[in-house]
């Protein structure tokens, strides 16, 4: 405990989050610390990594080396990008290559996500407990298997979203309040990445008040200034033509 305190770790938080640390070998901890420092991680980065995934302190160097090897050789992470990848998802270092990282890599590749090195945060996820249930949920709400896979392939971050706290409430709002079609979600799965309370609801309500119906990307991706600017243009002129990017199929701007 004195050693961990000497390298800047918060002992109370560490013990509270990961009680087994009190039984860890001092020699193993020192070896792990020295190894990560040798890989170029700073003291500040190391403290942050341990704060996010204290299990690393119970890992041996012999457990961590295969993870780095896997990331470089199999996940095709560039050596210069290794620190950023680990800092973004420290839990990777506490995962078993054979039982977790490699199966997840193969699954992601099997559904068409070829550049897994751009989505390494997903490698620590369980295929059975997290990835497949998201695809199953998309099928449950009406998408075909092919369309569900296409959506997560185009926007892999969908795998990171909670079904109960994110996907369900946003989908319910999309269908009940917005009254829009599944086709739009298929084309723009990024919809689920926007805040329901701070972005989706306010902008949809503005559109309803102004009698305008924008395609999802225009409604959600634009800055506040551009969004309200588009609203003013639509309200101070005739409705958008069908050939206009402001036109949304099945949305009648004159009937709202």
TrEMBL record:
Record-linked InterPro entries: MTERF (IPR003690), MTERF_sf (IPR038538)
Entry keyword Cell inner membrane: no
Pfam family, one: mTERF
Signal peptide region: none
Keywords assigned: Transcription, Transcription regulation, Transcription termination, Transit peptide
Coiled-coil regions listed: none
Family, as annotated: Belongs to the mTERF family.
Protein name: Transcription termination factor MTEF1, chloroplastic
Species this protein is from: Vitis vinifera
UniProt lineage: Eukaryota, Viridiplantae, Streptophyta, Embryophyta, Tracheophyta
């Amino acid at each position: 405990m004195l050693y961990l305190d000497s390298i800047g770790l918060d002992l109370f938080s560490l013990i509270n989050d990961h009680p087994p640390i009190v039984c860890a070998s001092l020699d193993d901890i020192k070896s792990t610390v020295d190894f990560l420092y040798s890989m170029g991680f700073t003291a500040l980065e190391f403290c942050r990594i341990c704060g996010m995934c204290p299990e690393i302190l119970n890992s041996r160097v012999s457990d961590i080396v295969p993870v780095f090897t896997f990331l470089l050789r199999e996940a095709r992470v560039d050596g210069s990008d290794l620190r950023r990848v680990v800092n973004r998802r420290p839990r990777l270092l506490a995962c078993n290559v054979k039982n977790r990282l490699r199966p997840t890599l193969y699954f992601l590749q099997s559904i068409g996500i070829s550049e897994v090195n751009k989505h390494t945060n997903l490698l620590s996820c369980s295929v059975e407990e997290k990835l497949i249930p998201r695809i199953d949920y998309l099928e449950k709400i009406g998408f075909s298997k092919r369309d569900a896979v296409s959506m997560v392939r185009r926007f892999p971050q969908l795998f990171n979203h909670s079904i109960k706290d994110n996907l369900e409430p946003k989908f319910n709002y999309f269908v009940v309040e917005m009254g829009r079609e599944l086709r739009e979600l298929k084309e723009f799965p990024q919809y689920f990445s926007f805040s329901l309370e701070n972005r989706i609801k306010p902008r949809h309500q503005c559109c309803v008040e102004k009698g305008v119906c924008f395609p999802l990307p225009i409604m959600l991706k634009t800055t506040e200034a551009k969004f309200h600017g588009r609203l003013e243009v639509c309200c101070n002129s005739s409705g958008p033509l069908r050939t206009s990017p402001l036109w949304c199929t099945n949305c009648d701007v004159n009937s709202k």
